[in-house]
Every structure is written in structure tokens, then in C-alpha cells.
Amino acid sequence: MSEDKPDFDALYRLGSGDKKFVIELLEVFIRNSLESLEEMADCLKKKDYRCVADIAHRTSSSCKHLNALKLYSLLREIEDNARGEKVYEHLRELLKNATFEQKRFVKLIQEHIDLYEKG
């Protein structure tokens, strides 16, 4: 199975070709996805499963729009498991996998941003 790659073409269509707008969207995704994963980790430590589920739900839609389908799937699984108050260790492992995938995906986004900034 090939790894997910950001769908930059769709974003440029959404932004009517406005590169600055697209870069801002990508930077917001980077910042928000990282903050969300950190918040989920804090909630999980407190065993606040509802908080974990709510953040996973809130974060998953932007992943889908950017074609981060593996991250989207992991977040949906986290949400479903947290709503069912599944085993803490399983949620911790899912969150670890989501964090790894977020970093991989953000690296691809950052490469695109770097190319834009070089001109």
C-alpha cells in the first residue's frame, strides 16, 4: 500500500490558485494537528476519554481534506475506542501511531512550503 501524500492540487483549487492562502492553510494544519495530538495525550493521561474522543473527532476532518487518510483513519479509531472507553494501553498505542503518521505527513507538507518559500 502506498503512503498518503497531501493533495496540494485540491487545495490550490479550493484557494483559486492563491499560493499564499494554501501555505497558510498548511501551516494551520501543522500547528493544529500537533497541538491536538498533544492535547489528546494529556487527556489520555487523565483517562478523560470523552476529551480524547472529542479532539480526535475535531481533528480528523482536516486530515481527510488534505488526503492524510492513514492519520484520518487512526483518529477515527481513537475516537471510536475512546467513546467506548476501551483499554488505555490500546488507546496509547493508537495515539503513538497517529503521532508518528502526523510527523511523516507534516514532513511532506513542510517540503512543499519550503519549495514555495524558495520561490
- Unreliable spans are none
Distance between the termini: 33 Å
> Beta-sheet strand percentage?
under 5%
Number of domains: 1
With helices defined by DSSP (H or I, 4 residues minimum), what is the helix count?
5
Structural class: mainly alpha
N-to-C SSE string, H for helix and E for strand: HHHHH
State the helicity in percent bands: over 70%
User: Assembly type of the shown chains?
Assistant: single chain
Could you tell me the mean pLDDT? Answer: 93
What does the largest sheet look like?
A: none
Report the C-alpha radius of gyration, rounded: 15 Å
Quickly give the CATH architecture.
Up-down Bundle
CATH fold category name? Four Helix Bundle (Hemerythrin (Met), subunit A)
Assign an overall shape.
elongated
Total beta strands: 0
Reading off the top of the CATH hierarchy, the class is best stated as Mainly Alpha
Keywords:
elongated; single chain; 5 helices; 119 residues; Four Helix Bundle (Hemerythrin (Met), subunit A); 0% strand; mainly alpha
Description of the molecule:
By secondary structure, this protein is mostly helical. The protein has one domain: Up-down Bundle (Four Helix Bundle (Hemerythrin (Met), subunit A)), CATH 1.20.120. Helices cover 82% and strands 0% of the residues. It contains five helices and no strands. Helix 2 packs antiparallel against helix 5 and helix 3 packs antiparallel against helix 4. The protein is elongated and about 50 Å long. The relative contact order is 0.16. The mean pLDDT is 93.
Provide a compact summary of the structure.
With 119 residues, this protein is an all-alpha fold. It has 5 helices and no strands.
